Amino acid sequence: MAGRAANGMGTITKRKDGRYQAAVYVLNTAGHRERKYVYGKTWDEANDKRVELLDNNRKGIPSISSNMALGDYLDYWVENIIKEDRAYSTYAGYETVIRRFIKPLLGHKKLNRLSPRDIRAFVAALRTRRTVHGAKLSDRYVQNVFEVLRSALTAAVKQDELIGRNVAMLVTTPSRGEHDVAPLDEDSARKFLRAIADHWLCALWLLLITTGLRKGEVLGLAWSDIDLDTGEIKVRRTVQRIRGQLRFGKPKTPRSRRTVYVGDVVKAALKRHRTLTAERMKGQPRPASDQPGDLVFVTSSGQVVEPRNVNTMLRRILKKAGLGHSRVHDLRHTAATLLLLDGATIREVMEQLGHSSIATTANIYGHVLDVAKRRMAERMDRRFSAD
Fold first, then answer.
1. Where in the sequence is the domain holding 40, given as residue range(s)?
2. Residue 49 located in a structural domain
3. What is the biggest distance separating any 2 CA atoms in the chain, rounded to whole angstroms?
């Protein structure tokens, strides 16, 4: 039924069109109070929305409206949704993209007045922008910026019900360009394995090149994540240096929180590593902030191995092996490539790598699939060839 709530709790009235209208003073994104109206087909529906607004006031969360500037909505979205629900590295990346590119180019536009033309002009403008080092934004980065904007507008449609459509969905996604995939070939992989045999992080390199785990996922492993009898490894956290600080956090996506298995060679290397780590420890451990107490890859002081030092160590190993330049991430590509060449399906590789979709895996490793198919054809040919 219609009626007036207690003072400060807002009012609900019935409109001439039969709907119910609730009016509440709320906090806006600037921290000021303003009157906000919500509507419902029934009194209860309007009241539920009124209660939600009051709950936001109680929590100090701003209530948002469809005619707010896109920049204000993006600030709300990244601080109240992304920061709460996603890994800190994702939040930091989104916040940077919004602050440096989306808000300067599009932030002044009203959320409910955005058009496909605005989005296309935005993408064109991005292609003229430069990084802090003066280089043009890569095709991949332009697409990443576009996808952040599209994700925010999707939330404005589906979660916050502020707008009726996502205009970014009406614009062709910018081309990502060619994927920069440079795996080691099989001969180079064997040379790499010989070069790491006596390295103090031999187990780390083996994990990278055999499982396809990301660098941060391997560095974030704890002994409680590993079953050395079965070879089961649970990926539960990642560690990265973000804005100058080492941070432990959730893996990149829900699919990144996964289980992989290793064979006897890696299990033996991990057992040796555990023994050597105990022998190398000096004095009282000085772990990094938020570091698990049973972290696998630590220095002699008990602190997580610095991610940037892994890059430096890889360059030395490659030089020792007589191999050309490769990134740590190329070891992940190497694992995926070798799995596909050995007959693994694209879905199996997707699950192993923790990609969010099979399309991502197929897009990156499509060329490897062609090689794998030719090998299968050759094997079948040999099977049925005459002696």
1. 3-59
2. yes
3. 94
CATH number of the structural domain spanning residue 257: 1.10.443.10
Tell me, letter by letter, the H, E, C secondary structure of 257-312.
Answer: CCEEECCHHHHHHHHHHHHHHHHHCCCCCCCCCCCCCCECCECCCCCECCHHHHHH
Whether the Cβ atoms of residue 260 and residue 235 lie closer than 8 Å to each other:
yes
Q: Which residue's entry shows tokens 């089961």?
A: 232
State residue 127's pLDDT score: 92
Is 229 a domain residue? yes
pTM of the model: 0.71
Measured from the Cβ of residue 129, the count of other Cβ atoms closer than 10 Å reads: 15
Given this model, what pLDDT does residue 2 score? 47
Degrees to nearest 5, angle at CA 46 with 40 and 48: 130
Q: Does position 180 have pLDDT exceeding 70, yes or no?
A: no
Chain centre to alpha carbon of residue 16: 48
Same domain? For 52 and 160 the reply is no
Cβ atoms of 78 and 94 closer than 8 Å: yes
Helix H segments across the chain? 43-59, 70-77, 83-85, 88-97, 103-106, 116-126, 139-158, 186-195, 202-211, 215-219, 264-280, 307-321, 328-341, 346-353, 358-384
For residue 363, which phi and psi values (nearest 5 degrees)? Answer: -65, -40
d(CA 47, CA 156): 21
Mark whether 223 and 270 lie in a shared domain: yes
CA 91 to chain centre: 9
Q: What is the pLDDT of residues 30-55, one digit of tens each?
A: 666 777 778 889 999 989 888 888 88
Q: Which amino acid is at 369?
A: L
